[in-house]
Amino acid sequence: MSVKPYGTEGSKKEEVRQMFDNIAPTYDLLNHALSMNIDRIWRRKAIKLVKLSQAKTVLDVATGTGDLAIATIKANPDKIIGIDLSAGMIEIGLKKIKNKGLDKKIDLIVGDSEDLPFAEKSFDAVTVAFGVRNFENPVKGLKEMHRVTRPGGMIVVLEFMLPKGKLIEPLYRFYFRRIIPMVGKVISKDFSAYKYLPDSVKAFPQRNDFLQLLTQAGYKDASYKSLSAGIAGLYVATR
Hints:
By secondary structure, the chain is of the alpha/beta class. Helix content is 46%, strand content 21%.
């Protein structure tokens, strides 16, 4: 089931682009505040996998404001490229990278994650954090990532999940469906964007179902690890 941010007659891709352009100025603030900075820990775990792979070229898909691309510096690659549909998010990411003095090692570009402007087998590793469920066609996007990954290279995906458990599940659902949209509306002035977040997570394949999408896209040895009691999943596979 495909969920769109605004529910108009336009494509999901255009709605997602518009949504992230709208919330770009407050995105980082809300992202870290609403996750209570746990998202930083999740990113560190993803980067550890990239570092272990000794990847020298890394593509960060749906990079947003570049948080994961910036964190990937700790894996010591030679080059990192981030790509995102939203020009508003990329603009903020470029400012962050310049302020950190990383503009010679990290490039951010505006582009379509389902039609990557790179040659086959261009990258040792491909990462994507909380972006695949925003694709209009997730399998197409994953196939594109597979296409640009070198043989033996890896894909690392961070994505939200719905936790399981009698105690955490109802608390999480309340926070996710009630608190996040309310706070998002107050700060970003866009209620639909933060209502879309829990709706899109609920609709998106999780755990073994997402592993099947990775396999369908051509990746092998796909596995996942639950993070923070199942709030997020860390998926990894090889080309």
